[in-house]
Structure formats: structure tokens, C-alpha cells
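JOB MANIFEST
job_type = single_chain_structure
chain_count = 1
residues = 209
[input]
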Amino acid sequence: MLKRHNQRGDTIIEVTLAFVVFSLLSVSAIAIMNRGVSASQKALEITLVRQQIDSQSEALRNLNDFASKKNARTDFHDEYADWQKIAKVNSTLYPDSIARSSVEELKLTEDNRCPGVPEGSFIMNARTGRVGGLAKDDKISGSDTAPFSQVVYNSADPKLIDSTNGIWVQPKRQSNSTKYVDFHITACWYSASGTPTILGTIVRIYDNV
């Protein structure tokens, strides 16, 4: 005859404790995954923005190169005029010139926001090699309308710029007798978490035009 053995079941406290432990492990795992996704997204954004900055840098060098050939060839007058506009300081010959002896410091605002686009800034059209827009003409916008700093080109005509969001160039030159121009390229944007990120570089180009 089989004997029946009494078996003690799990108490409410044990079940509750197991549920709490499981919940903590689940929340921790989700938090770790979210941090991993955020880190990956941030890395991707930085890579894309660096590509935008590199495009601006390359376009500036090409513009200087084409402008310097103006005297040898007659088909670079537009590039020559663009270079004078962004590289000369208070030029009487080029009243639209925007280069200055000082530029605004690369930093976030006191309330931890991206800075506004400084006066005297511009953007290059990397697809045409020409100046794509000036801040004084409201051609450059701040950083609130894009997932990362970028130049947005027209879908119908890829050579036209629709908008520029959170990226700009400031030309710095002590005087027109200085043999070089420092172009401060700045990008600032808000990631998905709302945290501002700011990147920048300085491109020194010797003025041989």
C-alpha cells in the first residue's frame, strides 16, 4: 500500500520574492539593451555628422583651388567671387565679405542648449563647390528640425539645398594681409534622448587667390 507523503507548497512570500527577482532582472536587461541602442545611435549620428563636416572642409579647399585659377582661366569667376565673399575682411571691393577677426567660441549655451547660428556664418554646397547660403540671408537654421546636423538637398534637383540644420562655417581672419583663413566648422544637434551634442573642427586654408 502506497504511503502519501505530505509536500509543502510555495508560500506567498516565496512566490512574491521570485517575482520581484525576475522583475529586477528583466528591468536590468531592458535598461542595458536601451543603453546599448542609445550608444549605437549616438555613434551613428557622430559618424554621419563627421561626414557632413568633412564635406564642408573638402568643398572649401576645392573652392580656394578653383578661385586661384581665375586668372589663368575665364570660367571660374563665380568661384572667385564666392571666395572673396567668405575670405576677405571688411573689403571695400567686396562689401558682402563676411570674414571676421574673431568668431564665437564653440560651446553650448548656459541652459545646455545648442547655440544659435552666429552672424557671419555660411554653408557650402558640397555638390556644386559653391557657397550655398549665408546666415544673414536666413539660409541656415538651428538644430531643432533634424535628427542630426546635416545639409538637406532638394529631391528633384540634387544640386539645390533645401535647408541646412545645425551646421555652419565661420571664417576667421585677422586682416586681409594675413596669408591664411581659419574656417571654423561647427555642428550641434539633439539626439533622440534630447541631449545636445556639439562637434567642430578648424580648417586653415592659405589664401593664394
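[summary]
The helical segments are 12-68, 77-87.
The first helix runs from residue 12 to 68.
exit_status = 0
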